[in-house]
C-alpha cells in the first residue's frame, strides 16, 4: 500500500515511462521471446539470439541459433511464421487499419547458425559455460513499492496494463493496442511523496471523439491506477496530448527488438549496461546476469540489509567468472558495501552456469516478460523475483 511521507529537504521530480504490448518495439520483443521459448521447449540448452523488425505490413525475424539436434533448428524455423502471426493476433491486431494484418502481412524468416568462434567460448569442453559476450549488467531494488521497484515505473506499467485489460475485455472497445504512459513522481529527501504528472497516449478507433476518449481514459485508467493519497495539488493529467492517435502499431512506426531497455528495467532510476534482454538464451549474460543482479539486489532490500541497492556485474566473452562485482546501497546499508560484496561472492555462484542453475533459466519462461517489464512482476512467477526464505544470512 502506498502512503505519503512528510519529509524535508531538496525537492525534485523523477519520470519513468512504459509502453503497451501493442507498441511496435514491444511487439518485436514478444516475437523474439516466443521464438526463444520455442527453441527452449525442444532443447533446453539451445543457443538463441533472435531479432525482429516490424514495418507497416512486414515482419522480419532473423538471428543466430545452435541446437544439439539439427532437426530442432529446422522445426522452429518451420514454425516461426505461425508464431509471428499468432503473436500479432494475441496482441490484438486484426487488420491493416488498426496497425498490421496478421493474416496478409509479409513474414520473412532468416535463421543462421551460431558462429563457431562464439560457440567454442560459451560451451567449453570441460562443461564450463563462458559468458556469451562481454558487458556490464545492473540490478536494482528499493523499498518504494511492495514489489521493490521504483514508484514511477511501477505506476507507468500499471497504466498501460490497465489500458490493455479494458481493451481486451471490451469495457472500452474503442481502444487499440498501441499505447504509452509516463509518470512523474515528486521526491523529498530521497523519498517519493506524490505523483505530479501523468501522460497517457492510447491508440483508438476513429469513431471516438477526443473529448469522450479523454474522459473515459481519465476515469477508468488514470483514476483507478493513481491512488488519491499520492496526488498533490500540482497533479496534472495529459491524455492523448496531440489530440488524435488513430494510426498505430507497425503502420505508424517501425518496431525493433531491444529498443525499450529502460522500460524493461527500472525506468531510468539506476544505470543500465546497454544490453537488451528479449530473444537471448540464458548463456547471454546481458540477460541472465541482469536477472541475477536483480535477484541479489532485491534480496538485500527484502532482508532489511538496505533501503535501496544497486548491483553491478561485468563479464568478458568466453570467461566464466565475472571480472567485477560491485554493490552500492547509497548509504542506506546496515553493513558496509564491501561486506555485502563479500557476502554475495561467498553465497552465490556468479558464473553463467551458476546463474542458470540458481534461477533455473533453461526453460521457456521468457515470452511473458517481453511486455510490462522484467522486474517487479506479480502477475507471473519469475525466479529472479523470489525472496530467499530466511533472508540473506
Give a written overview of the molecule:
The protein has 393 residues and is an alpha+beta fold. It has a domain of 107 residues: GMP Synthetase, Chain A, domain 3, CATH 3.30.300. It has a four-stranded mixed sheet with strand order 1-6-7-8. A four-stranded mixed sheet has the order 4-3-2-9. Helix 5 links the parallel strand 7 and strand 8. Helix 1 runs antiparallel to helix 2 and helix 4 packs across helix 5. The longest helix has 22 residues. The protein is flat and about 65 Å long. The N terminus is likely disordered. Belongs to the AdoMet synthase family. Pathway: Amino-acid biosynthesis; S-adenosyl-L-methionine biosynthesis; S-adenosyl-L-methionine from L-methionine: step 1/1. One of its GO terms (molecular function) is ATP binding.
Low-confidence stretches: 1-8
- Using only C-alpha atoms, the radius of gyration works out to 22 Å
SSE order: EHEEHEHEHEEHEEHHEEHH
CATH class categorisation of one domain? Alpha Beta
Secondary structure category: alpha+beta
Quote the beta fraction.
15-25%
Q: Write down the overall mean pLDDT.
A: 94
Q: Which strand order spans the largest sheet, edge to edge or round the barrel?
A: 1-6-7-8
- Separation, N- and C-terminal Cα atoms: 27 Å
Query: Count of DSSP helices?
Result: 9
CATH architecture of one domain: 2-Layer Sandwich
Major sheet: size, sense and barrel closure?
4 strands, mixed
Shape by Cα distribution: flat
Percent helix: 25-40%
CATH topology of one domain: GMP Synthetase, Chain A, domain 3
The counted number of beta strands is: 11
Amino acid at each position: 500500500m502506498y502512503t505519503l511521507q512528510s519529509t524535508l529537504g531538496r525537492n525534485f521530480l523523477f519520470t519513468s515511462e512504459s509502453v503497451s504490448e501493442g507498441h511496435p518495439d514491444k511487439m518485436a520483443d514478444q516475437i523474439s521471446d516466443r521464438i526463444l521459448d520455442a527453441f527452449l521447449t525442444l532443447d533446453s540448452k539451445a543457443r538463441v539470439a533472435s531479432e525482429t523488425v516490424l514495418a507497416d505490413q512486414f515482419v522480419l525475424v532473423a538471428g543466430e541459433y545452435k541446437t544439439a539436434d539439427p532437426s530442432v533448428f529446422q522445426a522452429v524455423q518451420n514454425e516461426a511464421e505461425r508464431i509471428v502471426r499468432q503473436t500479432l493476433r494475441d496482441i490484438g491486431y486484426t487488420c491493416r487499419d488498426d496497425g498490421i494484418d496478421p493474416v496478409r502481412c509479409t513474414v520473412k524468416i532468416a535463421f543462421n547458425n551460431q558462429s563457431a568462434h562464439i560457440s567454442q567460448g560459451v560451451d567449453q569442453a570441460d562443461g564450463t559455460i563462458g559468458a556469451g559476450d562481454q558487458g556490464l549488467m545492473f540490478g536494482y531494488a528499493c523499498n518504494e513499492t511492495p514489489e521493490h521497484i521504483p514508484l514511477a515505473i511501477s505506476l507507468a506499467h500499471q497504466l498501460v496494463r490497465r489500458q490493455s485489460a479494458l481493451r481486451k475485455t471490451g469495457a472500452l472497445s474503442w481502444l487499440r493496442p498501441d499505447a504509452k504512459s509516463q509518470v512523474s513522481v515528486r521526491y523529498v529527501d530521497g523519498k517519493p511523496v506524490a505523483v505530479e504528472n501523468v501522460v497517457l497516449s492510447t491508440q483508438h478507433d476513429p469513431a471516438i471523439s477526443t473529448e469522450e476518449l479523454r474522459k473515459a481514459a481519465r476515469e477508468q485508467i488514470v483514476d483507478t491506477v493513481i491512488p488519491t493519497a499520492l496526488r498533490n495539488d500540482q497533479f496534472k493529467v495529459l491524455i492523448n496530448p496531440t489530440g488524435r492517435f488513430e494510426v498505430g502499431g507497425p503502420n505508424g512506426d517501425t518496431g525493433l527488438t531491444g529498443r525499450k531497455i529502460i522500460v524493461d528495467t527500472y525506468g531510468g532510476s539506476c544505470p543500465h549496461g546497454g544490453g537488451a534482454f528479449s530473444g537471448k538464451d540464458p548463456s547471454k549474460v546481458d540477460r541472465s546476469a541482469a536477472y541475477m543482479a536483480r535477484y541479489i539486489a532485491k534480496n538485500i532490500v527484502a532482508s532489511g540489509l538496505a533501503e535501496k541497492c544497486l548491483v553491478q556485474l561485468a563479464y568478458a566473452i568466453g570467461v566464466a567468472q565475472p571480472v567485477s562485482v560491485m554493490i552500492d546501497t547509497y548509504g542506506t546499508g546496515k553493513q558496509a558495501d564491501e561486506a555485502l560484496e563479500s557476502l554475495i561472492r561467498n553465497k552465490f555462484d556468479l558464473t553463467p552456469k551458476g546463474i542458470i542453475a540458481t534461477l533455473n533459466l533453461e526453460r521457456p519462461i521468457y515470452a511473458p516478460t517481453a511486455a510490462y517489464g522484467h522486474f517487479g512482476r506479480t502477475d507471473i512467477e519469475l525466479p529472479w523475483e523470489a525472496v530467499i526464505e530466511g533472508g540473506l544470512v
